[in-house]
């Protein structure tokens, strides 16, 4: 009886395990790319006088970076993280733009103050912006996404 139970547990664990995290998530340059993306979005927001919060999350929705500018609404940082997590979780939605990233074809998806970068239909990172109207927030999220892809 114990042997059957043990082998049954092994099958469940094997079915749940999905392998190591994707290379883009483990990359040593993710931190540097995140900083560059936040810096670019912050500069654009300050240039336009927008008081916003900008969040970047991994493909699993884990926060990688956050900038909260002076004058932004009190809950804007929480909302920016939530928008980015939603963008990372949703596969295909919004406006699509094809571009190159790390030698591969990438898709940048944008809508409602959030943008995500996808390679082979899998999210690499997502950016959320809160504190301005959706058009301006989406513009900032796209600015951060393009800076993330350009960073070395």
Brief rundown of the structure:
The protein has 152 residues and is an alpha+beta fold.
H/E series: HHHEEHEEEEH
Major sheet details: 6 strands, antiparallel
Instruction: List the strand order in the largest sheet.
Output: 2-1-6-5-4-3
Distance between the termini: 56 Å
Q: What is the 3D shape?
A: globular
Question: How many DSSP-defined strands?
Answer: 6
What class do helices, strands and sheet pairing give?
Answer: alpha+beta
Cα radius of gyration in angstroms: 18 Å
**Mean pLDDT rating:** 77
Proportion of residues in helical segments: 40-55%
Number of helices: 5
Ranges where pLDDT stays below 50 over 5 or more residues in a row are 1-21
Beta-strand portion reads: 25-35%
Features:
152 residues; alpha+beta; 6-stranded antiparallel beta sheet; 6 strands; globular
Please render the helix and strand layout as text:
Blueprint: H1 2-16, H2 23-26, H3 30-48, E1 53-58, E2 63-68, H4 76-89, E3 95-101, E4 104-111, E5 114-119, E6 122-130, H5 134-150
Helix pairs in contact: 3-5
Question: Can you walk through the features of this model?
Answer:
Strands 2-1-6-5-4-3 form a six-stranded antiparallel sheet. The N terminus is likely disordered. The protein is of the alpha+beta class and 152 residues long. It is globular and about 35 Å long. 45% of the residues lie in helices and 28% in strands. The chain has five helices and six strands; from the N terminus they run αααββαββββα. α3 packs antiparallel against α5.
């Amino acid at each position: 009886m114990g042997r059957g139970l043990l082998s049954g547990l092994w099958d469940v664990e094997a079915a749940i395990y999905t392998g190591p995290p994707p290379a883009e998530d483990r990359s040593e340059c993710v931190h540097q790319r995140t900083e560059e993306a936040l810096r670019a979005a912050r500069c654009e927001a300050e240039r336009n006088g927008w008081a916003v919060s900008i969040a970047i999350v991994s493909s699993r929705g884990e926060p990688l970076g956050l900038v909260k500018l002076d004058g932004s609404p009190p809950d804007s940082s929480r909302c920016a993280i939530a928008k980015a997590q939603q963008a990372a979780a949703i596969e295909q939605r919004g406006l699509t733009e094809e571009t190159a990233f790390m030698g591969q074809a990438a898709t940048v998806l944008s809508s409602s103050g959030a943008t995500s970068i996808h390679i082979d239909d899998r999210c690499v990172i997502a950016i959320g912006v809160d504190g301005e109207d959706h058009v301006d927030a989406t513009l900032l999220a796209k600015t951060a996404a393009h800076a993330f892809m350009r960073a070395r």
